[in-house]
Amino acid sequence: MENWKDVATVLSGFSTVVIAGLTLFLWRENRAMRKAGSEPRLIAYYEPHPDGTGGLNIAIANVGTGPARNVCFQFLGSPEDFSRYNLQLDCTLRRGPISMIPQGEKLSLFFAVGHQLFKSKAGEEKPIPPFNIKLEWSTLQSSRKISSIFPLDVSPYAGLPGFVNKPPLIKIVDSLDEVGKQIGALKPLVGKLTHIIETTTLESEWVSKTKGNTEDI
Length: 217
Hints:
- With 217 residues, the protein is α+β, with helices and mostly antiparallel strands.
- It is 28% helix and 28% strand.
- It contains five helices and nine strands, in the order H-E-E-E-H-E-E-E-E-H-H-H-E-E.
- The chain has helices spanning 2-36, 79-83, 168-176, 181-184, 186-193, and strands at 42-48, 55-62, 68-76, 95-101, 106-113, 131-138, 146-152, 196-198, 209-211.
């Protein structure tokens, strides 16, 4: 009988250790799941300007599951390469911190008019060399910096038909051309406006605009 009591005591102690181990494991898993459920993740990529005028933006998007706080970004490339092209964005500065990019939102920066990235200021028919952009951010729960580096290369966009799409307003005007010549007369007026890209910054005292691609739309 005493032997059975000893065995029961050993089994009880062993089960206690197993239960404690399982509890610790579940606690860690739940903690990891809660962390993953509110973990922001930023990515950077090229996107066409929404006006459809040939401008190219650099988008910084939050594809994670929580808001990104204190966002900073910096271009990692040769300053000489950047200076050889007509860029609208100064790539020599480290930007930020931007207070917040919510989950599912993005920050779009006007980088350059598309065709200017494939021809240098000196007239050399060569796309701007690939470069990297470094993103840094933190979560709402922690001030610890998270960073990631993304390569950006404009050369794959060369020669892509339909990359510069007409904005919705022009598509509507095109469809109205079939209704009558009087409505169709609006097309050249709207077409001229779509060649202008807004470039005004917060520091500008005056409204600034830049011409986009000049092909007929």
